[in-house]
Structures are given as C-alpha cells and as structure tokens.
Amino acid sequence: MTKFPKIERENIESWLSAPRYKRYLEIADEDDSAALNLYLWNIGLAQAVLRDVSFFEVALRNSYNREIEENFNGDEHWLFDASSPLRKPILRTNKRGQVNDANRINRNIIDHLKAGLRDNATPDDIVSNLTLGFWAHMTDRHHERVLWIPILHKVWPKGASRSDINTRIAQINNVRNRAAHHEHLFVPDGETCSTLEACKDAVELFSQLASEACSYVYGDKDRICSVSEFVSNNPAPCSVVI
Asked: How far apart are CA 218 and CA 201, in angstroms?
C-alpha cells in the first residue's frame, strides 16, 4: 500500500464526513492511518466490483432486449407498446388489501427516460440507459406468467429457476449500488458479507448469457472474478470479510 503524508482526522472527516469515516475507524481500532488505508482499499475493491457487474449487466440487458424483441408481437417496440409485458397493468393485492400495478414503475422509468433524451432517440438509446435494477425487476414473481414463462426463461440454461435467477441478480444489483455510491463493501471478520459471492455470481451468470465473451474476459478455465483477483493482489489493511 502506498505511503501517504500525515493527514489529521479533522481533514479526513471534512473530506469523507464523520459518519462515513466512523465505519472505517471502528474496524481499524481508531487508527487513522489504517482506517484511511482501508477506505482507499475499499475504493479499489469497488472498481473491481463494477468491472464484474458491468460485463454481466451489458450481457443481461442485451439478452433480455433481444429475446423480448423476437417474441413480442405488438404495434410498437416493447418499451412503448401498451400491451407489452413491461407496460400493461399487472394488478396485485397486497396483504393490506391495497391494489398495486406491478408495471407502474416500469412505465414511469421508460417514459421518463424517453422524455429526457433527444426527440429522435431510438429504443436502443433507452435500453442502454435503463439501470440494472430495471432488468432485475423482470424476473420477480409478478412477471412470472407474462414474461418469464413465455419469454425470458429461453435466455437461461434449461431448467433454470426464476426465483434463483431473480435472487442472484437482485443481490448483484445491491452490491453494484453500494459500490457505485462509495459505500463500504466489507464487514468485520467473523460476520457475513455478500460482495464476493455477488461478483462470482455475476461472472457465472455472464458465462450463461455469453459464454464466448465471458471466456475472452476471464479466461477459458477458472474464470476468476475481478474481486477475487483484487483481494489476492491487494490484501486488506485490516481483518475484514467481503
């Protein structure tokens, strides 16, 4: 780890904020040098997380978009057609007896993106701007009959479980969001963390969606995720679990 000039805690807290820095101090036993090194290490870890997730996310959205385009027969692209499985009302009653539309958020996201892009924006422009959370939502239980069974199951290996795929993508998205928002991606030694597991899942699911591309990025055999490589080459300055 690179050695840095001495910096006072007040300067660190002014930069990171006291609440954010507190997490690092707690694990580093109130040692400012170790805590700051842990923060810098976490930034490197976040970069590795985003690398793994980015490869998977692009493969996921293109696979889903391609499959829906090939199987949806509407007057417009599936992003805009009122009969699309991502736009038509899917009404569900919750435990409190309230009726909710499972596609309301999807419609709002698509329409908001369309309104914010140039007038001649194409469906591909919108697809490329949709978040991983949007694609993760496609395999939830509300979309099982309208989307998973008739269309999206074809993207995955035969016999794949919708529930399992959904859980894994949701966890990948959660870890991705933590990395993107510069949150800590570790826990104290002895606790349970999902960062490494999520990135291993990202590589595995990437290989199921685009095997040749995955082999090109990660190699033909081991396909070791970027997070594993980062930790192997950059030991954490404190005892933590990822």
From this structure: 13
